[in-house]
């Protein structure tokens, strides 16, 4: 019995955007892409082929009442789902405009917008797992991405088999992830995923070579899968790749029927070729139907004869069919994507900017004159990040690649992650010194803690961290085994490479994050494949421990640095050593030894090389172009230095707490930040002479840095609103500026162009 019928109409045309009004004026044809019930069956969401989502409330009398209409996307709304982030019912939508949006289910106010797909988004799948809420999305270019409710960008980036239209679903208990999709050539793929690795775990067989539509699927009882293909319904046991059984439901099914189990898995609704719906039932489902006195269903036969006894034995009865029959009709006949998909895929463009090298081959000698100090907190914005945990010296620090979080590794092997949330004070959810972020921890209180060496205490030089490019996985070590963490759950996925020798530096290969370069305490570099848990090769060329590694995709090389103050270039293709060179010492200084760090400028061709006695710029042939060193041997040593994301600045920390902001091209000083400007007097007096052990540069905000301090604090610093950039000061008359007590290493010290 059909309870209700709702022909489409726009509820309030005056509230619609002009693009939608224009679209409807040109072509009023509109169809349903998707309909889905809310978690308790009292609300129904409908996604349409043009812009709109309509939400209805449903009561037991069979009434659908208008609740809310949302002008959600430009173009079609391809999928809709419900979720409960922060214990509040929300609606998730995706569309042809390549976006995913989250809406308050009561007010209709947009809460989140997720961007990053490069093609129309085809489907969304929401889950609450291990106290973490997230969304999977798939696009018609075959890309699968995952999002947390934190505006931090996509956390995973997988390729769906078939690289076209794919839907995803979890088992009922949320422990197993499946996807089903069809390629443009008609090849269908039903697979189970290994979430932690982003790899296909199991591929199910039994599809015809060329499906006649996009195959849809569903799961039930944490044990079975069903998909509509070849005018049939096909069933699989989740643990076996071969087909369990098939049924044609007594005929009349389309080539790729849509289908949906009820919650108990005893009934299955499937679409028919004559625009009808068949309800199939196993033994328990049919028994339940016979017990109903008030309802009569046509065609409630078929599945009990087709499915063998083990399937029937795991499916329980349904007490109230009226509460469950309607929700079985969740998925409407999904419309095929537009025929212009090929041109959309071809329109994808590289995100690599055409950046020209900024480093000049020569420069006139810089005139010596004093530079201004930033001495007062009013001259900049500095934020000490909240930390109720026991503080230990920060030994490694970085921004996530999205730039929306800061990750620190302390000397006690504990990691700390701070995230900026979207709120009324920070709508984009960007990292900023103006808004206090949240120290992120799972609700179980579990910390990300590295394995420590059982034979000797961890040294600072043995601490190392690296994030995958999608911020989903962290590799880290603190003198013991290397740990691979899942950044969603903070759980250790695996450990490898027990010490000795200890890992001292880690770098992901940007072309393939399954390939990792790991610098070791014994001076070797191990090229390790995470997926197969195997060391592919060992590189030998240094005499002391490895202290820096960096890849260049432009040059197709790996550059390494060591405590022997030596640089080496390795070809990625064959891993042969292309060149090696020791650092050039400042005039009058003995040969350099000690920890050396390397970082590529944004042109991927020039290197910033950092040593406690100098900072230098090298070209791709390891020729030193420019160098700067403290003025005398009594000056404070350099503790850390990093290049800004735009390649314009070099931020340099000193062991007396000062920070120098240098021009990246000439290595001339722009300004100096003295400790009193960013460390309050009360904190300074209690912690002693704290200094930045490590500086991290924001990946997209060139004037923002984070400091990991010797007293365990983490700070974010950026220019004041009155001075949005770290400016180059203009000299006063006679080339002198007001004299202020400052770091003597930074005063009157020009950069050097080494003699050839």
Automatic annotation (TrEMBL):
Region feature Disordered, mapped onto this chain: 725-756
Gene3D superfamilies for this protein: YVTN repeat-like/Quinoprotein amine dehydrogenase (2.130.10.10)
Keyword annotations: Repeat, WD repeat
Residue ranges with Polar residues bias: 740-756
One Pfam family matching this protein: WD40
Signal peptide segment: none
Keyword Transmembrane: no
Gene Ontology terms describing biological process: regulation of DNA-templated transcription
InterPro entries: Quino_amine_DH_bsu, Quinoprotein_ADH-like_sf, Topless_fam, WD40/YVTN_repeat-like_dom_sf, WD40_repeat_CS, WD40_rpt
WD repeats: 70-113, 539-573
Coiled coil: none
Record protein name field: Topless-related protein 2
Organism, scientific name: Davidia involucrata
């Amino acid at each position: 019995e059909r309870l209700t019928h709702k022909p489409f109409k726009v509820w309030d045309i005056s509230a619609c955007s002009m693009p939608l009004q224009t679209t409807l004026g040109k072509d009023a044809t509109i169809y349903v892409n998707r309909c889905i019930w809310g978690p308790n069956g009292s609300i129904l969401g409908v996604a349409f082929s043009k812009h709109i989502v309509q939400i209805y409330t449903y009561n037991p009398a069979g009434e659908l009442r208008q609740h809310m209409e949302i002008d959600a996307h430009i173009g079609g709304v391809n999928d809709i789902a419900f979720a409960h982030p922060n214990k509040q019912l929300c609606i998730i939508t995706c569309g042809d405009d390549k976006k995913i949006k989250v809406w308050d289910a009561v007010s209709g106010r947009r809460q989140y917008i997720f961007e990053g797909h490069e093609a129309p988004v085809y489907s969304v799948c929401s889950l609450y797992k291990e106290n973490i809420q997230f969304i999977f999305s798939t696009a018609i270019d075959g890309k699968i991405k995952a999002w947390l409710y934190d505006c931090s960008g996509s956390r995973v980036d997988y390729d769906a088999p078939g690289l076209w239209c794919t839907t995803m679903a979890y088992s009922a208990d949320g422990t197993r992830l499946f996807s089903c999709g069809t390629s443009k050539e008609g090849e269908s793929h039903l697979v189970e995923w290994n979430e932690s690795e982003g790899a296909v775990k199991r591929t199910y067989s039994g599809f015809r070579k060329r499906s006649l539509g996009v195959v849809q699927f569903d799961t039930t009882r944490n044990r079975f899968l069903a998909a509509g293909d070849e005018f049939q319904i096909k069933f699989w046991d989740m643990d076996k790749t071969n087909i369990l059984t098939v049924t044609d439901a007594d005929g009349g099914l389309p080539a790729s029927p849509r289908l949906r189990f009820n919650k108990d898995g005893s009934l299955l609704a499937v679409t028919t070729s004559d625009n009808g719906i068949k309800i199939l039932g196993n033994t328990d489902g049919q028994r339940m139907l016979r017990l109903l006195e008030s309802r009569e269903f046509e065609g409630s036969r078929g599945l009990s004869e087709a499915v063998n006894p083990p399937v029937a034995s795991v499916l329980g009865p349904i007490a109230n069919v009226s509460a469950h029959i309607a929700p079985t009709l969740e998925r409407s006949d999904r419309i095929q994507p537009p025929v212009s998909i090929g041109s959309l895929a071809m329109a994808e463009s590289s995100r690599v900017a055409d950046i020209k090298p900024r480093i000049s081959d020569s420069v006139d000698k810089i005139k010596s004159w004093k530079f201004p100090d930033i001495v007062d907190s009013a001259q900049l914005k500095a934020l000490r990040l909240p930390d109720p945990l026991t503080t230990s010296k920060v030994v490694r620090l970085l921004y996530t690649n999205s730039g929306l979080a800061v990750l620190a590794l302390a000397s006690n092997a504990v990691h700390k992650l701070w995230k900026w949330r979207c709120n009324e004070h920070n709508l984009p959810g960007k990292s900023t010194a103006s808004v206090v972020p949240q120290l992120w921890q799972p609700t179980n209180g579990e910390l990300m803690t590295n394995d420590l060496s059982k034979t000797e205490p961890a040294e600072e030089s043995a601490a190392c961290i690296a994030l995958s490019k999608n911020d989903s996985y962290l590799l880290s070590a603190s003198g013991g085994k290397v740990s691979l963490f899942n950044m969603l759950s903070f759980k250790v996925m695996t450990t490898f490479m027990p010490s000795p020798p200890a890992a001292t530096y880690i770098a992901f290969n940007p072309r393939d994050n399954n390939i990792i370069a790991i610098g070791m305490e014994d001076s070797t570099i191990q090229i390790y494949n995470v997926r197969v848990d195997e060391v592919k090769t060992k590189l030998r060329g240094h005499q002391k421990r490895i202290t820096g590694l960096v890849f260049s995709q432009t040059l197709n090389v790996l550059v390494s640095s060591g405590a022997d103050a030596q640089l080496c270039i390795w070809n990625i293709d064959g891993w042969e050593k292309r060149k090696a060179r020791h650092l050039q010492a400042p005039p009058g200084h003995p040969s350099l030894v000690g920890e050396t760090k390397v970082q590529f400028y944004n042109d991927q061709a020039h290197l910033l090389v950092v040593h406690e006695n100098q900072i230098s710029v090298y070209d791709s042939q390891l020729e030193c172009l420019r160098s700067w060193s403290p003025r005398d041997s009594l000056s404070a040593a350099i503790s850390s230095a990093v290049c800004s994301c735009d390649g314009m600045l070099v931020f340099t920390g000193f062991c007396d707490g000062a920070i120098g902001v240098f021009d990246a091209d000439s290595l001339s000083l722009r300004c100096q930040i003295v400790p009193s400007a960013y460390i309050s007097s009360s904190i300074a007096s209690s912690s002693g002479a704290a200094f930045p052990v490590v500086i991290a540069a924001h990946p997209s905000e060139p004037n923002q840095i984070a400091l990991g301090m010797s007293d365990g604090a983490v700070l974010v610093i950026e220019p004041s609103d009155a001075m949005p950039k770290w400016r180059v000061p203009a000299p006063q008359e006679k080339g002198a500026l007001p004299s202020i007590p400052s770091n003597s290493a930074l005063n009157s010290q020009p950069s050097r162009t080494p003699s050839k």
